[in-house]
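Fig. S4 source data, part A: sequence.
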Amino acid sequence: MAEKQKHITDERFRELVSEAGLKLTDESIRAFKMYYKMIVDKNKVMNLTAITEYDDVLIKHFVDSLLVKRAIEDLQEVEPKIEPLTSAKVADIGTGAGFPGVPIKICCPDTEVTLMDSLNKRIRFLDEVIGELGLSGIVAVHGRCEDLGRDSGFRESFDYVLSRAVARLSVLGEYALPLVRPGGYFIAYKAEEIDDEAEEAKKAISVLGGELVDIIKVPLPGSDMIRSFCIIKKVKKCPKAYPRKAGTPAKQPL
């Protein structure tokens, strides 16, 4: 019988997160373990993730979520005035079980995080997570991006809008760019081969006030996967006509 795979140790978890450009404290390790348990328990009654094995969640959800820190560091080499992730105002759209927003908040306590999702039961779960982990400076908001992007409390107010959602970049752009402040960035987590999709989305991105400035490819520590980050800068204000009404961006991409 094959030996059962051992869990990633706390020390190994620290090493993986350090490769993503961040540090884990004892307190943050405890928070991640509690978060993992809450995800697995809730997943029994609600579809949050297909990935539930401890090691897989640590690498494919937690470390992957944090990897955006590396992409932003690469970006700072050419745009040194951009806001560091550790003190930015961040929106996580289509957050689902809280990725990437909750792992970022755990590791970056001074980052202001807004989690957005269209399913209220996911938002209720995230409220439980925020409460149990004792996190502050993070809120979970129920709503569709098409509606939130028209809300004066959210529109063009974030330094970074992040998304790990599975949708074409041309569609994600209409969800995200109305939320990004001029001079801020929409960063989409994508699979390694993204160049054709990014090219296809350039027109839509331009219409929405954005510009594709880079595709940064970063190896995911602890795996053989490559994560591509599409970096889109908000170069001008988004036209008032966008986002269009709920459901339209997905059905009729720009």
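Fig. S4 source data, part B ends here. The chain has one domain: 10-251.
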